[in-house]
User: Fold this.
Amino acid sequence: MTREQDLLKAFIEFADTIVDEYDVVEFLHRLAKRCVELVDASEAGIMLADRDGTLHYVASSSERMRHIELFELQHDEGPCLDAYRTGLPVHSGLTDDVHARWPRFAPHALELGIESVSALPMRLRTEVIGALNLLSTAPTPLGTEDQQVAQALADIATIGILQERALNDALIVTSQLEAALESRIVIEQAKGIVAERSHVPIDTAFELLRGYARTNNRLLRDTARAIIDGTLSPDALAEPAHRDRT
Assistant:
């Protein structure tokens, strides 16, 4: 299958996902995974802004990327923050001159094997609601074609969050973003519980949660709350029928 076919398949999948009561965090996690598959990136992560304009980590392609995103937020520097604040794409190799721009992020990324970065604002018209972060172990930033594909994915993510029915209602938009951020907190807590009780890595714990939610047609955040409340046992997630195969 060509990349054009893969991209078309991804867009159809995302369009089918964006319905009433869809799970924003699950949608963005799936999009981060597809970014790694469709462009020359090793990791992908997504941050969203709250009503005060403060960025928060929401989704990523792996646990390693989650830690990188949190490092950016903790030290208030990095490509994702720049893309959000300026509303412009960032494409850069982690060369020596970049260390002056990101004195803490650049050395940290290099230590983890990251050689180049790309970050794209999640923007609709003049409104920027977050950023898509793409990191690569290759020293050369994304090429022109990959940049176009990545921007299309960022646009899909933006539309998926705002949705046409909410574009003219600031209160609805704000509530959607806050719901996504609150869901992320619940899911992180549930991941920890599943990882500890099932003796599996965090990445595996998350995939178990996703698989159970999708197999049982439940929202990911509701599955996570059930784990936290004790109404759903982590053992139930490990059953083969509930594993997510996508």
